[in-house]
Amino acid sequence: MFKKILIANRGDIAVRILRACKELGISTVAVHSECDSNLMNVRLADESVCIGPNRSIDSYLNISSILSAAELTGTEAIHPGVGFLSENEKFARMVAEHNMKFIGPRPEHISMMGDKIAAKRTMKKLGIPVVTGSEGEIQSVEEAISIAEITGYPVIFKASSGGGGKGMKIANNSGEVANALKMAKAEAKANFGSNSVYMERYLAHPKHIEVQIIADNYGNVVHLGERDCSIQRNHQKLLEESPSSVISNDERNKIGEIVTKAVGEIGYIGVGTLEFLYENGEFFFMEMNTRIQVEHPITEMVTGVDIVREQIKIAAGEKLSFSQEDIKVTGHAMEFRINAEDPKTFTPSPGNIDELHFPGGNGVRVDSHIYRNYTIPPYYDSLIAKIIAYGKDRAECIAKGRRALSELVIDGISTTTDLHKKLLENSDIIKGEYDIHWLMDNLENI
Q1: CB count, 10 Å around CB of 323?
Q2: What pLDDT is attached to residue 164?
Q3: How confident is residue 1, by pLDDT bands cut at 50, 70 and 90?
Q4: Of all residues in the chain, what percent carry a pLDDT higher than 90?
Q5: What's the whole-model pTM score?
Q6: Angle in degrees, CA 233, 156, 194, rounded to 5
Q7: Distance between CA 339 and CA 343 in Å, rounded?
Q8: Are 52 and 31 in contact (CB under 8 A)?
Q9: Active-site positions?
Q10: Where do the domains of the chain lie, and which CATH numbers do they carry?
């Protein structure tokens, strides 16, 4: 097992990783930007190193600074967390070149799945269903229209190197193709440095279903069930639950078997999540995230598996401590992302937290890095806390969620707490009758 791990991230995920390290008896190094010197994970870590100015490009995305901090502190392994450098092939390779362990998959798998076109081709060959569309990058308006005549409208253009809803534009007919393609390319270039986009048939009312997998160095691959992440605003997840209310046990087992077989065939190691659109009983592969997910706590709650702990142990060369037969999805869990944002406009709301009280009690978990008098900086993602509710079934989980959200107090800034409260009173949410478009279609009426 590792003796010392550097956590190359910030916020709640850095605290989550730090806790797993402490439970494993591993010393921790926190890196931080100038404005993050008072972060919770920095306070809790055994050592800390400032890696640069406030902007992410100068700190959390500064590979040389992070590697220097790792060498300075005698680090054996680096955990990238989520976002920032977590899916950066170059970073993963450089960590290995500096004789340290990257706690994540092999660089070639990060590269393979980072290119959405390559990922789609790979998964299709491995028997995973995909949405009909272009086989590769769209080169012209004429090509897009030709393919759309086969798939049917509407169609959606997506950035090949994208994620988080960036570089996604819809064309409802041939007259809209040229402008949608132009806008998608421009947005992809601005956000990912490449204007490469591909095209798919646009599904009208799909669910966003993702399957969590974990694989060791010895050919063992296990899936941990699915998460329903369909409550989204502008393609950004806001509320997640596990298991999905629309997936049957047979469907869960079938897609799980397909996924684990495919992941095993490519020799994947570590944790990963395969994301699907689900409509009319069919799964369609979207992408694979080669890292821990923000929403991993709900899977931990219903399976009893400490995913981050297992991730670290696998990186250290240990075998999975369980098999597929050991995994039983029990009860129901929901995660409510509390963002420092206006609950109606989603405008960021950085500032000082004047008062803070987190909920507790049976069936409630809180993953966060904030505390009273902590000042939220304007430079990073607005996620400040995750409230996780667990019950023996979905109805009890919703009741626990309502109670937990009613206890939550965060004064001094605006948060999405009130939006979550309203969601749990909505009949569609209570019945599980929602898709990925539901929130944006109903936001004004909530």
Answers
A1: 9
A2: 66
A3: very high
A4: 92
A5: 0.93
A6: 90
A7: 9
A8: no
A9: 291
A10: 4-86 (3.40.50.20), 132-201 (3.30.1490.20), 207-445 (3.30.470.20)
